[in-house]
Amino acid sequence: MLDTFIRHATTTLRVLWWMTIVGTATTFGTLYGWQGYGLDGAIGFGLVGFTAGAAFAALFPEICLELFGRVFLGVFQLLWD
Length: 81
Known about the structure:
Number of helices: 2
Largest sheet: none
């Protein structure tokens, strides 16, 4: 039962991780493109952000999740004290 829970929790975290990274990269690309180049730039840079975010999320999930975990743990400890 615990094994099933861990598998589901891991899958959920990976999906949330992918959505967060890809969504953030796409948003930043779109905003940058919109400010500098209008609608065409927003579409182009949004696609570049989506591609870069997808590659980053696929290649480095463990490293970045550990980094985010340490940052959130540090913030939580700071707020707790």
